[in-house]
Each structure stands twice: as C-alpha cells, then as structure tokens.
Amino acid sequence: MMSTSLAQLNRRGSLTLLAASLLATACAARFDPAHFEGTREARRAEPEALFELGARTSELETLGTVRARCTRKPGFRRLEGETLSDLDCSNERLRLALRESAASAGGEALLGTACAVRRLGTSEAHELSCAAEVARYRSAASANPRPLSAPRSFPPGRPAPSPSDVARIDEPDASLAFRICLNFEPAVTSFEGPPRPSADVHELSLMPLSHVRLGDLTANCADDCDERALRFGVLIAAGRLGAPDVVGVRCFRTAHGNSCVGTLAAPERNE
C-alpha cells in the first residue's frame, strides 16, 4: 500500500512539472509588459526617482509614450497560464510598470499619467489601462544624477522614504509580473476568503493540523526571473485568491525556465 501511494505521488509530481513547463511556454508567448514607443536615450534615473507632472515645461523634452494594461478577474478559481499581472491587476501595479519602462527608456518624468477601466462584456472581468508621456530634462545639470544609490533611489533632498516605499524595496520589479505565469488547481469545491496583500500571507514550512489544503499553486517564468521574484509571486497570488497561508514553497529549474510551487491553505474553521 505504501509503495503504491509513493508511486502515485511521484507520477502526479511528474505530470505537474510537465504541465507547468508547457503552460509556462504558452504564457511566455503572451508576455506584454508596459509598452514604450519613441526615442530611447541613456538611462539617468531609477523608476522611483521619476517625477509625475501634469504637463511638459520648457526644461523637458518628450521622448515618447508608455502604456500598460491588465485584466482583473475576482474570486477563488482555477488558474491556467494566467499572468501574475492579471491576477494582481491594479492601477498601482500598472503605474509602477510605467515607471520602470520610462526609466529604462531614459526618462526622468511621466507627464499626464491617466488610467481607465472598462468592464468586459457581462462578466465580472475588467480591463485596466494606464498611459503617460515620457520626458527628460534637456540639460544634464537639471537631471537627476545617474547612477543613484542602488537598487532604488530618490532625487537628492527628498524626505525619507514612506512605509509604502520601504515595502516596494523588498518587491521584485513590477514588470516581472507580466512574465510570471500561474497555474492553480483547487483542491476544494469552494472557498471564500477576502483578497489580502502579500504581507498578510504567512509562509509556513509545515501544514498545521487546524488547516485545510486549498490546492497547489505554481509560478513559472521562461527567463529573466530569479527565485526571489517567483517566491514573492506565489505569495502575491495566494493573497489575491484569498488564501491566508502558503505551505512548503519549493523552487526548481526546468528546461523552460524557473518555477516555484506552494500549497495554499487556510484554517478549517475561522475563529
């Protein structure tokens, strides 16, 4: 009986890895981060150091435009090759992606940033989009110096970072969420838990006796994603699905890239 159970577990694990690899490849083909159109220049500032202005001044020159979008679907559900940027779709994530793309293009300011939302048909899904002009100072003397203190930096003389700024320092780049693909097969017929930030999701080494297993969630990335980003992606995804805990996160590499998997769990009874 024991050998049969182990064989079943090994077979199930092999099938899970194979499916995860195939879905990671398919998801990577749909990669669509913040899109910049215009003239690229040498990088001068980190994303968090960019100014957000309402209009262009005589000191600035426009490099181009940057846009980002995502599709938000609420609720606890099965995931099959869904990007983390869609599961964790928000204006905040899109605006961070704009900053990263603009900084990479040599920008120092976002002009007229605007976001919009529209409902997709009769479903509960909504498409969010944000766009802005990208500009930089004509004179290098007016520009934010580069390099600045890594990995994230602010203009000289700016006050100490806020608690939200400090929290962002520990997160991987927002643009990576467009590369990370998620797969989740619920182990329960239904679960109702409010979405929560990743900071409120507990990472546990063992399943508590008081908990019920909700299912295994896998985060995959074809390239350019390190283990830290994928582990953080598992926590973000768990929070969006309403799971308060993730058990036994483990990471591995396949022929198609890096992956991390964790078991979502919740107390059987809410006290």
Keyword list:
6-stranded mixed sheet; alpha+beta; Translation Initiation Factor IF3; 5-stranded mixed sheet; 2 domains; 5 helices; about 270 residues
Quick rundown:
The protein has helices at residues 2-28, 84-87, 91-104, 163-169, 227-240, and strands at 35-38, 51-53, 60-72, 79-83, 109-119, 126-137, 181-186, 202-204, 211-221, 245-254, 257-267. The protein is an alpha+beta fold.
Write up this protein.
By secondary structure, this protein is α+β, with helices and mostly antiparallel strands. It folds into two domains: 35-174, Hypothetical protein apc22750. Chain B (Translation Initiation Factor IF3), CATH 3.30.110; 179-267, no CATH class. Helices cover 24% and strands 33% of the residues. It is built from five helices and eleven strands, in the order αββββααββαβββαββ. The strands form two sheets. The chain has a six-stranded mixed beta sheet, with helices on both faces. Residues 1-25 and 146-153 have low confidence and may be disordered.
